[in-house]
Design a protein that fits this description.
Elements lengths: L1 H9 L4 E2 L5 E3 H7 L1 H4 L1 E6 L6 E3 H19 L10 H5 L13 H12 L6 H10 L15 E4 L2 E5 L5 E5 L4 H6 L1 H7 L6 E10 L14 E11 L9 H4 L3 E5 L1 H5 L6 E4 H6 L6 H16 L7 E5 L11 E9 L2 E12 L1 H10 L5 E18 L1 H8 L3 H9 L3 H12 L3 E5 L2 E5 L4 E15 L2 E8 H12 E4 L2 E7 L10 E5 L7 H13 L4 E3 L6 H10 L4 E5 L1 H6 L1 E6 L5 E5 H13 L4 H7 L11
Parallel strand pairs: 1-8, 10-12, 22-23, 22-24
Antiparallel strand pairs: 2-7, 3-4, 3-5, 6-7, 8-9, 9-19, 10-11, 12-13, 13-14, 14-19, 15-18, 16-17, 20-21, 24-25, 25-26
Length: about 600
């Protein structure tokens, strides 16, 4: 999260805020979450077990396709191990060869599964006899299940509330303050890291689907008539792996390698600001260690689009469970600010001074209120409202009729005879020097738990010479411990050096830990390789005599040697990312494994 703050908040000059978790119900009633923030679920008709409908279809069809591949000899039957026996089965794989047409149908359904509505998922269950894999019982019709946790506020419980399912609404409620802090100008962005809560139907897979999670959200407010981005030219030639909605609807999951500039020019990505954030998300994920070959951006199809979005892309990362959405990037248009403004009566708008005033002419009705009131009494307000809702063409027509002496207006079942003494319509000139508009919002939303889960999977590997020795190749920027300090001996003469090195590293802002256990130095390094510690320094008898220290790199196990202060300087630059290991090898000589002691 520290790197997220640096990468987004600091580099893109965002405003960070912290808003409430417990939120009054009117906020989410206004935003549409109470009515539409839901997933489809189905119930086992005999046991009453609840399953998420789209996941059920996915698991069953994938199991059938796996059985088909085994029957065709395209995939070997995996061996059961103890972990597999303990793991809850998704769906039983039965080795049966399917018809080629049915295979294509299943693959097409899986490619666009997120685009199916609840009734359509129910139809799939009936058509392909999809049952609860744990009981083999039929399931009922899909029903919507709201994902928010309801609560109450106050001692009497009379004020309903919800645990927030996202941090975004806090940004919108504080828009006026944020705008004022930015001197009333757009574009600008606000960012927040915080806990959110969703009452998931079937939590599973560790951190991938949980009911309480940490997320980071950015709300970038932009002029709806100008969604360009000043930094887009810097990222225009960046190539992304894109899976657009048209490819998915056709039944395919084939990604396209395309520069973001080309994607925006072709209208695949809606605008420059959305494209800019897709690139920034891509750079962030790769920087923290996500394998770029297992990262793609998938565009939402029509039915899966959130109620507030006009375009949305998910950064999906491949892992052992398949492709998992870890970051969403949506164009929320002006939906949120508009609905909150309408509910509260407070204008959530930007007022922009125009360089050149806009001069317009239009027809303006003017009533003789004294005469109108005397003539129509209480019905006068109905007449005034009807005329006020007329557009330019209707006013011009009414003006022509009044010039002939009299006009008739019908409103709310009543007719009004209008004469020139009751109302006049004149053409007036207006000069507009201030433009008032509701900004649109581009929102990148990060699920840190999912990112961490996939990062750990992408980073773990075993050494070829010894498969029992695991390595967690976390980049220094995200590794919890940056440096392991390993004294070769427990003798007291080593204590001052250990203390000196530890203190200098802390002053340089580098978190380190000392491993002075009795095990061999090789085992100490192997143990910390599994914990993801990228660097290690060894203090041996030559360190005591000559004030030298060796520096070890985790992945290659190569070692360098040099004076203690020189090694700490190089180590600081390695951790900060200003140099890489090959550059460090040019700064310090390689260690030959021999202690230079008298």
């Amino acid at each position: 999260m520290a790197e997220w703050r640096k990468h987004f908040i600091i580099e893109d000059h965002m405003l960070e805020l912290d808003t409430t978790i417990m939120t009054p119900a009117p906020v989410f009633e206004t935003s549409g979450h109470v009515a539409r923030f839901a997933d489809w679920m189905v119930k086992d008709t005999k046991t009453g077990d609840v399953l998420r409908a789209d996941h059920l279809v996915k698991n069953v069809l994938e199991a059938r396709l796996a059985g088909d591949r085994e029957a065709r000899g395209l995939a070997a039957q995996p061996k059961d191990d103890e972990k597999d026996k303990k793991r809850k089965k998704k769906a039983k794989t039965v080795v049966v060869q399917l018809a080629d047409e049915l295979v294509k149908e299943f693959e097409s359904i899986l490619a666009q599964l997120d685009n199916y509505s609840g009734p359509e998922i129910g139809e799939l269950c009936r058509k392909y006899d999809i049952r609860n894999p744990d009981t083999d019982n039929e399931v009922g019709e899909p029903q919507q299940f709201n994902l928010m946790f309801a609560s109450s506020i106050g001692p009497t419980g009379q004020h309903p509330g919800y645990l927030r399912p996202e941090t975004a609404q806090g940004h919108f409620l504080n828009f006026s303050r944020l705008l004022e802090f930015n001197n009333g100008r757009v574009p600008f962005a606000s960012a927040q890291i915080g806990r959110s809560f969703r009452n998931e139907i079937s939590p599973r897979a560790g951190l991938l689907r949980v009911r309480e999670f940490t997320m980071g959200e950015i709300e970038h407010f932009v002029d709806p008539e100008d969604k360009s981005h000043e930094k887009f030219r810097e990222v225009r030639d960046t190539v992304l792996s894109l899976l657009d909605r048209h490819v998915q609807v056709s039944g395919s999951t084939q990604v396209t390698q395309m520069t973001i500039g080309e994607a925006v020019d072709k209208g695949i990505v809606a605008n420059e600001t959305l494209g800019y954030f897709l690139v920034r998300i891509n750079l962030f994920l790769i920087k923290i260690g996500i394998n770029p070959k297992r990262l793609r951006f998938r565009q939402h199809m029509g039915n899966e689009m959130a109620h507030y979005a006009t375009d949305c892309w998910d950064a999906e990362i491949e892992n052992a469970t398949g492709w998992t959405e870890c970051v969403g990037c949506a164009d929320r248009a002006a939906y949120d600010l508009s609905v909150h403004s309408a509910r509260t009566g407070q204008p959530l708008v930007v007022r922009q001074a125009l360089k050149e005033p806009i001069v317009t002419e239009k027809e303006v009705p003017e009533f003789n209120k004294k005469v109108v009131g005397k003539t129509y009494g209480r019905d006068a307000s109905i007449l005034q409202k009807a005329v006020g809702e007329m557009d330019e063409s209707q006013l011009i027509k009414l003006k022509g009729e009044l010039a002939q002496g009299q006009a008739t207006i019908s409103a709310e079942g009543k007719e009004f005879a209008i004469t020139p003494d009751l109302m006049a319509i004149e053409r007036k000139t207006f000069k507009q020097s201030i433009r008032e508009f509701t900004p649109n919002v581009i929102e990148p939303s990060f699920g840190f738990g999912r990112i961490l889960y996939t990062l750990l999977e992408h980073s773990f590997w075993c050494r070829e010479q010894d498969i029992e020795r695991g390595v967690l190749s976390l980049p220094p920027v995200v590794a919890p411990t940056k440096v392991l300090i390993v004294p070769l001996s427990a003798k007291e003469e080593f204590d001052p050096l250990v203390q000196e090195v530890s203190t200098k590293l802390r002053k340089a802002g580098i978190f380190s830990r000392v491993d002075d256990s009795n095990t061999s130095i090789g085992k100490r390094y192997a143990r910390n390789d599994e914990l993801g510690t990228p660097f290690g320094v060894t203090l041996d008898f030559a360190s005591v005599q000559n004030r030298t220290m060796t520096l070890r790199e985790r992945d290659t196990t190569d070692q360098l040697i040099g004076p203690i202060d020189d090694v700490i300087t190089v180590l600081t630059e390695l951790v900060q990312g200003t140099i890489d290991w090959p550059a460090a090898c040019k700064r310090l000589p390689a260690y030959d494994g021999v202690q230079a002691v008298d």
